[in-house]
Amino acid sequence: EVQLVESGGGLVQAGGSLTLSCAHSGFPFDDYAVGWFRQAPGKEREGVSCISRSDPNPWYADSVKGRFTISSDNAKNTVYLQMNYLKPEDTAVYYCAADTDPQYASGIYYGQDRIYEYDYWGQGTQVTVSS
Prior knowledge:
mainly beta; seven-stranded mixed beta sheet; four-stranded antiparallel beta sheet; 13 strands; globular
């Protein structure tokens, strides 16, 4: 059974940092991708970042490039999202999601921010950035 458990959310002042963790288990295959998404009140869920085992280059949304860093510790089965220089507009529920059958185009992970490509989701963790 695939499980994803997020942790690390909280309240932080603008300009501060948080690190989210996504502990995963039960992936059926060696190749997979894990993405971070977020959803603010009244807004659609949007992709933030993703990382896959077969694509060495993580993907980032333009809104977080240069501020967020995604990484994976395969020994711990955990994917991290380091968030620096947080802004009030980063306030949202953050979800990690897994694509257990990732597809690639020219070596680049296809899923990125395509919600329908991810077949398992965590419960979410709240991130609130105060101004």
